[in-house]
Amino acid sequence: MPELPEVETVRRALAPVLEQRYIAAAFVGRDDLRWPLPPNLAARLQGRRFTHVARRGKYVLMTLDDQNVLLLHLGMSGSVRIHDRAPTLGRHDHIMLTMADGEQATSPTHYVVLNDPRRFGWVDLFALSTQASYKLLQHMGPEPLGNAFSAEYLQTAFKGRQGPVKNALLNQQLIAGIGNIYASEALFHAGISPRRKAATIAGGRAVRLAAAIVKTLRAAIEDGGTSLRDHVQPGGEIGYFVQRLAVYGRAGEACQICTTPIKMLVQSGRSSFYCPRCQR
Ligand SMILES: [Zn+2]
Questions:
Q1: CATH architecture of 4-133
Q2: Residue 68 burial by Cβ neighbours in a 10 Å radius (0-12, 13-18, 19+)
């Protein structure tokens, strides 16, 4: 599932294509993805202009000139493709926006397609004035790359939590945007066991973990930028290939620090990967 760095990569690819451009035509091929799509979505998008493309946690938030926000979550298998010529849509291409510099579709600049074979993704449309109280965003914790995030914040947020630190990192109400992959990676770089009780993340450990989270996410966003340049050919899928992972998906391989084989452990039904020697 795309996590903060992959969603940020999508946002960066979409921003120059959408911002200040008009939706000359909107195609919506279904009534639902994971959940029902907003009623009359195509008609409500048609003729609108995007003013700003932002990200919060794992959501892309695209503000329109009518003060509505188009929200996108890629779910498990969603992807966005940007074409400069009208593509032939396949059966998993559920939404297409034809972008133009004016309200008329006479000379489209781009075609933005949402593809989602498993349909675990979702799209919503709501008033910008309700964004702060919007159900999926209302209780979301701070952005780990934002000013509100720090070792002190982490220590306070994890205080009294008896569950494992790995699960606390996945809790979107504590920190936004981290999923299974970057939780394992950040814990490895901080030298902290995924099994350690969250409440014990304090002092030097909190400093190490906060720094590892920021460093891991920033490196992945940089890789995303690289994959964008390499893989978004006109008409290509936005590349959010996960790269340079130290432990995730590497059970049995040698730890890059001490060569001990990486182990896998299932916590709350989700895999964690760690070095049993380097992480305590
Ligand atoms: Zn190791």
A1: Alpha-Beta Barrel (3.20)
A2: buried
